[in-house]
């Protein structure tokens, strides 16, 4: 049989959930969700996030998984195989390009995390003032070559895992790293809640419901965040769906993954913000939170040396499980479209990414020429993918799954050909979400992001 037709399938249900959750849990859970939740009404935001997940993101996730499992091919080919005459037949390429671009800067940030893991081991934060920490962060990022080299380590590791294969590489890695990640996170949460002075304020920041902080913008933020967090709109879930066994229950899988992803995001908040408030520091998000605020806190915390190591190990694990899913999107595309072996495809993608991530890292150096209209290539990629390509990819996928693909596709996949009675009972509700609710809100989000709303 042709190598390309012999498709791997994840070996176990738990492995499938670990892989999918691993692809979802990433920097978004650590440095974005807790802050957005805190700024947008705490528990009120979490409730909205839950509603948004149920009505918008889980239906989108189900669409991707169903398309992937039904066609068992890469995220580009899915559209062509289902409707080869439709004007959207090439639209899957958007997801492949998005994944590739996201990887190019995600691996650089993974490199920063790796560097900080090393600094934590060397006890480098100790005794440094905020100004000194800030200076060394700037020197590191703007140094160009160093972040790139650390990014290469992340990319190389990712290439090896994906090169080993779907079951022995990707599934095994996630089955090891995900429980480890949860274990580390629980240690950090317990320390933050029970052993830090004044952790109450941090808990209130994330957990106290404040509905007065909720605006329309909150809802858009929730949609954007849950979409990014569940790695939707760029083919990652289509490709993972294509490896899911046909006996698995897709609805149960999607709901579990989404709950795990959300719980980990909330736990990250419970680990981080009690510490931030205990040390009287302003809550922040993004790189500043991870590479400045937190090292600053670790220098002051009892046992900070150990907690810094555990924390940056967690960040590296979360990044690597995500880069693996991003990488697989490109590799499966190259493998199937150019009819080459997995390992050769990995090398092609690896070298292409070495080049692109070099440009991305270079664009952050002082006086770089890769700055366009005041923004570095790094920022352009980040913003174009999150604010334009991902939501557009999401809209295309849900409309394709709900309206363009044969009517039986979704039903067959979501109910395992009507053999799962509970799923069959709820199918019509889910179908309404996929056909109407999810596209409607995604289009609103898209219009808002491009400034038309
Ligand atoms: N879901 C990841 C996060 O929350 O950080 C980001 C991401 C990873 C997006 C993998 C897309 C993807 F394929």
Please estimate the helix content: over 70%
Which CATH C-level class is it? Mainly Alpha
Beta strands, count: 2
* Tally of domains: 1
The CATH homologous superfamily is named: Hydantoin permease
Query: What's the CATH topology label?
Result: Hydantoin permease
Structural class per helix/strand content?
Answer: mainly alpha
C-alpha termini separation = 52 Å
Mind explaining what this structure looks like?
The protein is mainly alpha-helical and 453 residues long. It has one domain: Orthogonal Bundle (Hydantoin permease). Helix content is 77%, strand content 1%. It has 18 helices and 2 strands. The chain has helices at residues 13-24, 27-39, 43-71, 77-82, 92-121, 130-142, 145-164, 166-195, 199-207, 216-229, 236-241, 250-278, 286-300, 304-337, 342-362, 377-404, 407-415, 421-449, and strands at residues 371-372, 375-376. Strands 1-2 form a two-stranded antiparallel sheet. A hairpin with a 2-residue loop joins β1 (371-372) and β2. The longest helix has 34 residues, at 304-337. 53% of the residues are buried. The model has no long low-confidence stretch (mean pLDDT 96). Bound molecules: 4-fluoro-L-phenylalanine (PFF). Residues 23-24, 26-29, 99, 102, 228-229, 231, 234, 236, 322, 325-326 line the site of 4-fluoro-L-phenylalanine (PFF).
């Amino acid at each position: 049989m042709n190598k390309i037709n012999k498709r791997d399938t994840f070996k176990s249900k738990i492995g499938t959930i670990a892989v999918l959750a691993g692809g979802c849990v990433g920097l978004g859970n650590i440095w974005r969700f807790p802050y957005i939740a805190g700024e947008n009404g705490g528990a009120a935001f979490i409730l909205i996030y839950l509603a948004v997940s149920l009505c918008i993101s889980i239906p989108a996730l189900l669409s991707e998984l169903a398309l992937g499992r039904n066609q068992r091919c890469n995220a580009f080919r899915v559209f062509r195989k289902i409707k080869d005459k439709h004007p959207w037949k090439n639209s899957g390429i958007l997801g492949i390009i998005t994944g590739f671009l996201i990887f190019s800067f995600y691996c650089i940030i993974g490199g920063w995390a790796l560097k900080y893991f090393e600094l934590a081991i060397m006890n480098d934060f100790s005794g440094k003032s905020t100004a000194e920490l800030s200076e060394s962060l700037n020197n590191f990022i703007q140094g160009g070559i160093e972040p790139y080299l650390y990014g290469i380590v992340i990319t190389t590791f990712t290439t090896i895992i994906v090169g080993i294969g779907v079951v022995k590489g990707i599934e095994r890695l996630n089955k090891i790293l995900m429980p480890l990640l949860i274990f580390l996170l629980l240690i950090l949460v317990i320390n933050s809640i029970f052993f830090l002075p004044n952790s109450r304020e941090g808990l209130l920041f994330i957990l106290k419901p404040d509905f007065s902080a909720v605006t329309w913008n909150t809802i858009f933020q929730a949609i954007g965040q849950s979409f990014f967090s569940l790695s939707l709109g760029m083919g990652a879930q289509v490709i993972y769906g294509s490896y899911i066994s046909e006996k698995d229950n897709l609805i149960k899988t999607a709901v579990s993954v989404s709950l795990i992803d959300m719980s980990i995001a909330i736990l990250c908040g419970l680990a981080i913000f009690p510490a931030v408030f205990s040390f009287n520091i302003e809550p922040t998000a993004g790189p500043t939170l991870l590479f400045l605020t937190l090292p600053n806190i670790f220098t002051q915390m009892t046992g900070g040396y150990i907690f810094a190591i555990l924390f940056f190990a967690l960040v590296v694990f979360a990044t690597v499980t995500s880069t693996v899913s991003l990488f697989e999107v490109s590799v499966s595309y190259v493998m199937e479209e150019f009819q080459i072996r997995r390992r050769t495809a990995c090398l092609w993608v690896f070298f292409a990414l070495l080049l692109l991530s070099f440009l991305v890292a270079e664009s952050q150096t002082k006086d770089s020429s890769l700055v366009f209209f005041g923004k570095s290539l790094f920022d352009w990629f980040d913003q174009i993918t999150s604010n334009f390509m991902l939501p557009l990819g999401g809209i295309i996928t849900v409309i394709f799954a709900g309206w363009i693909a044969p009517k039986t596709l979704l039903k067959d996949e979501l109910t395992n050909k009507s053999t799962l009675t509970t799923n069959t009972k709820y199918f019509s509700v889910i179908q309404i979400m996929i056909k109407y609710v999810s596209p409607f809100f995604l289009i609103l989000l898209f219009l808002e992001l491009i400034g038309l709303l």
